[in-house]
Design brief:
The structure is a single chain. The chain is an alpha/beta fold. The protein folds into four domains: 6-55, ADC-like domains (N-terminal domain of TfIIb); 65-135 and 334-453 and 466-498, Rossmann fold; 138-328, Dimethylsulfoxide Reductase, domain 2 (3-Layer(aba) Sandwich), CATH 3.40.228; 599-711, Barwin-like endoglucanases, CATH 2.40.40.20. Helices cover 30% and strands 18% of the residues. A seven-stranded mixed beta sheet has the order 5-4-18-17-16-6-7, covered by helices on one side. Strands 24-26-25-30-23-27 form a six-stranded mixed beta sheet. Strand 6, helix 4 (110-124) and strand 7 (129-131) form a beta-alpha-beta unit. The chain binds iron/sulfur cluster. Residues 10, 12-13, 15-17, 40, 44-45, 47-48, 178-180 line the site of iron/sulfur cluster.
């Protein structure tokens, strides 16, 4: 182990807080403050502070496991890798390349996500690859691309938030999901700005707002349309901006005018005076922002819902201007980078489209393959999971635990069990890994180097601070070994920097251009914002750290590109440089309450656990703070049920039943219950959730489904 302190980043959420890792007197590493990183300035939540506990956890996997006689037993690496080759090979031989599926994760580094996409398409030749980031932000990505021609979580750094006039935060509970980010919103209010929070629950974040709007789950599309209606009715449209920088306003305006405030009040439960107050707070300052998160995005109409919020920004001239804009707060650690470099069903590295012949030709050249050999787009995440055991017979899974995190989880669990072969790479025996035929123990964040891209589009370098335990290998080593065994000897390096060098070339000229970013720059700077194209090199290629195939410049003036913290200020990334209004109208969620299932369920996170809990449920301090699931419900619902605080309550949907203790609060609407989704077993919230998909983003409707409550004896 190194002796000096190593600056790096947290392994969990998209804030990617900076931290220093130092040798601990007890062995391993301990976390210390890293004040120089501007996103968190040393602050960390409990998950980040305790992250090293997973490195040395007693349940850490340190040996490959293979299924023998129905049980997972330790095996050598050769035995385990051979079994995977056999399992994937058998599926491919019997049913063709698409019988092999690959499922990745939004926590994988850029290098791993890139290599996984390449492995699927070049080694397995399968189109069937997607990742759990599809569940995280794909509706915002789709809406952002429609409107602006490009999707980057935030088009500005977080440090702009305190300087704007008003922020509408839609469906985000930052106080629990990214506590250090609250600083920016506190500073906003100290500077005289206002915070509006849109959330069906009075969350810890909503408690800090100047105005809290609590719409019925799944109605924030109507809410945004109602606000836009008032913007028009009150003469607050920025006509000059709309004329000069957008197209499509007339149709979007007409759609909004059909959403009268009283009609919107009936749909959402948000009163007309509250709607008017929100419009006043949003429109009076010179600059304002709208930020969305999973609330509006995880809906069967998530793309339209985000489009409605973007329309509000465009009509008021709050996009592509200093201190104004629409942004998506991505969730997973590499939720942004993970969607840019090819593990998504329809994408190639650099945020290129798999259906674009020029993109295929460029990436195929970098990969040294025939463009025609690259498969086309495959299924989205839930559709891929739903197809397991049907035409997908074998699955390689990396960095995900869908048996807990996917919607309709009991069904997904059955589909996983019906596979002919499942291989999982993980650090612990997650609920999904426990169903595998082969489990490979892999390195964690502090044991390997790699880059991630945080919610601001800031590319960061995580550095190796500690040696991995004996018996553990990196995901890159796994793909290298598997590729070689499957007949592809070259093109799968195990050194992350070598992979990044190739990723730079593959992304060059694409929407997410990383070609001007190097490990050296990332080590010297506090991250670099994409797009960051490589400068042309001089005739000798000397003096500038650029890929060898960068064009040769014809003068001596080129300097390294500084990166792009703020995008869209001059023009949007569309052909004509103008943003697009997308005309949307209100529609109901896929499963409205009825007599049999009269209550709405919404799901989310708590501060001490992360996603499916595969890592955080292994940390004592976090388990003490958040030991298990609960059902949050209003006193009126509890009284109807005869339930007191802590009583077990059954929540039943058309997909299954979950039981968890009641947590009674007036901070939730009486027609809605909330469950966090971090746990397996009888309290698994995703047993209940609805996999109804958004038609554009293919994102499931985690945020609203119909349920009934039942008292549980004893
Ligand atoms: Fe880690 Fe996110 Fe917590 Fe920061 S807010 S310490 S990145 S989990």
């Amino acid at each position: 182990m190194k002796t000096a302190s190593t600056p790096t980043h947290c392994p969990y959420c998209a804030l990617q807080c900076g931290m220093n890792l130092s040798p601990s007197p007890q062995g391993g590493v301990e976390v210390q403050e890293r004040a120089d990183f501007p996103v968190n300035r040393g602050a960390l939540c409990g998950k980040g502070r305790t992250a090293p506990a997973v490195l040395s956890s007693s349940v850490r996997l340190t040996s490959p496991l293979v299924r023998s006689g129905g049980t997972l037993v330790p095996a050598t690496w050769d035995e385990a890798l051979d079994r995977i080759v056999e399992g994937l090979g058998a599926a491919r031989a019997a049913h063709g390349p698409d019988a092999c599926g690959v499922f990745g994760g939004g926590g994988l580094t850029n290098e791993k996500a890139y290599t996984l996409g390449k492995f699927a398409r070049v080694v397995l030749g399968t189109s069937q690859i997607d990742y759990n980031g599809r569940f995280c932000m794909s509706s915002a990505a789709a809406a952002g691309t429609k409107a602006f021609g490009l999707d980057r979580g935030l088009p500005f750094p977080l440090e702009d938030i305190p300087k704007t006039g008003c922020v509408i935060l839609v469906g985000s509970n930052l106080a629990e999901t990214m506590p250090p980010s609250l600083r920016f919103f506190n500073e906003l209010r100290e500077n005289g700005g206002t915070l509006i929070v849109v959330d069906p629950r009075r969350t810890k974040t909503a408690e800090q707002a100047d105005l809290h709007l609590a719409p019925r789950p799944g109605t924030d599309l109507a809410l945004a349309l109602g606000l836009l209606h008032l913007v028009v009715a009150e003469g607050r449209v920025d006509e000059e901006y709309v004329k000069g920088r957008t197209v499509g306003w007339e149709d979007a305006r007409a759609a909004a005018m059909a959403h009268w405030p009283e009609y919107v009040e009936r749909i959402t439960g948000v009163s007309v005076p509250q709607l008017r107050e929100a419009v006043r707070l949003f429109c009076e300052p010179e600059a304002a922002m709208v930020l969305t998160a999973r609330g509006p995005e995880q809906q069967s109409k998530g793309t339209d819902t985000v489009s409605a919020w973007i329309n509000l920004c465009l009509a008021t001239g709050r996009a592509g201007r200093p201190l104004s804009g629409y942004g998506c707060l991505t969730g997973q650690g590499n939720g942004q980078g993970g969607r840019e470099h090819g593990q998504k069903a329809d994408q190639l590295p650099g945020y290129r489209k798999l259906t674009d012949p020029a993109a295929r030709a460029h990436v195929a050249e970098v990969w040294g393959v025939d463009p025609d050999s690259l498969p086309g787009p495959g299924r989205s995440a839930y559709e891929l999971l739903d197809a397991l055991g049907t035409d997908i017979r074998a699955l390689l899974l990396m960095g995900s635990n869908p048996v807990v995190s996917a919607p309709r989880a009991a069904h997904v669990e059955e589909r996983v069990k019906s596979l002919d072969f499942l291989a999982v790479c993980d650090v612990v025996l997650s609920e999904t890994a426990a169903l595998a035929d082969v489990v490979l123990p892999v390195t964690q964040w502090a044991e390997e180097s790699g880059t991630t891209t945080n919610l601001e589009g800031r590319v960061l370098l995580r550095r190796r601070a500690i040696s991995p335990p004996e018996g553990v290998r990196s995901d890159l080593e796994v793909m290298h070994e598997l590729a070689a065994r499957l007949g592809v000897e070259k093109g799968f390096p195990t050194d992350p920097e070598e992979v990044f060098e190739e990723l730079r070339r593959a992304s060059a000229g694409g929407p997410a251009d990383y070609s001007g970013i190097t490990y050296r720059r990332l080590a010297e700077e506090n991250g670099v914002f994409w797009p960051c194209p490589a400068p042309p090199r001089d005739a000798e290629g000397a003096g500038l750290d650029v890929p060898p195939d960068a064009p040769v410049r014809d003068d001596e003036t080129a300097v390294a590109h500084p990166g792009t913290p703020r995008i869209f200020l001059d023009r949007f990334a569309t052909e004509d440089g103008r943003a697009r209004f997308v005309t949307v109208t209100h529609r109901a969620i896929a499963e409205e309450p009825d007599d049999e299932y009269p209550v709405l369920l919404t799901t989310g996170r708590v501060v001490a656990q992360y996603q499916s809990g595969a890592q955080t449920r292994r940390v004592d301090e976090l388990n003490a703070a958040a030991p298990g699931p609960f059902v949050e419900l209003h006193p009126r619902l509890a009284a109807r049920l005869g339930a007191s605080e802590g009583d077990p309550v059954a929540v039943v949907s058309r997909r299954g039943r979950a039981v968890a203790p009641a947590r009674i609060t007036t901070g939730i609407r009486p027609d809605t219950v909330f469950m966090p989704f971090h746990w397996p077993g009888e309290g698994r919230a995703n047993t209940l959730t609805n996999p109804a998909l958004d038609p554009t983003s293919r994102m499931p409707e985690f945020k609203a489904c119909a349920v009934r409550l039942e008292a549980v004896e004893g």
